[in-house]
Automatic annotation (TrEMBL):
Organism of origin: Vema ewingi
InterPro entries xref list: NUOK/Mnh_C1-like
GO cellular component: membrane
Name of this protein: NADH-ubiquinone oxidoreductase chain 4L
Taxonomic superkingdom: Eukaryota
Gene of this entry: nad4l
Topological type in the membrane: Multi-pass membrane protein
Pfam families: Oxidored_q2
Compartments where located: Membrane
Family membership: Belongs to the complex I subunit 4L family.
TM ranges: 20-40, 52-74
Keywords: Membrane, Mitochondrion, NAD, Translocase, Transmembrane, Transmembrane helix
Length: 90
């Protein structure tokens, strides 16, 4: 069941990759599912919560960088299509 929850965002991202915002949402879903699995395994194996805190920090940084990139793409191209991001390749 948990492996299905992890592979679902990956498969959805591979199938429907038109909008950059959809890709960001799938990546956030993927990171939340990994965090959920880490919480479940930390309860079973008594791993410290430091790893979870570091993972949540990196996940928040990834979200902030993704939103910054989305704003840059929207200001540059006027849309969030992945096919229109060829303008950002300097």
């Amino acid at each position: 069941m948990i492996s299905f929850l992890v592979t679902l965002p990956i498969m959805s991202m591979l199938v429907q990759k038109n909008h950059f915002l959809n890709v960001l949402l799938y990546l956030e879903t993927f990171s939340i599912m990994i965090l959920f699995m880490a919480i479940l395994t930390s309860k079973v194996t008594n791993i410290g919560s430091h790893f979870l805190l570091v993972f949540m920090t990196f996940s928040a940084c990834e979200a902030a960088m993704g939103l910054g990139l989305l704003v840059t793409i929207l200001r540059t191209t006027g849309n969030d299509y992945i096919s229109a991001s060829h303008i950002l390749k300097y």
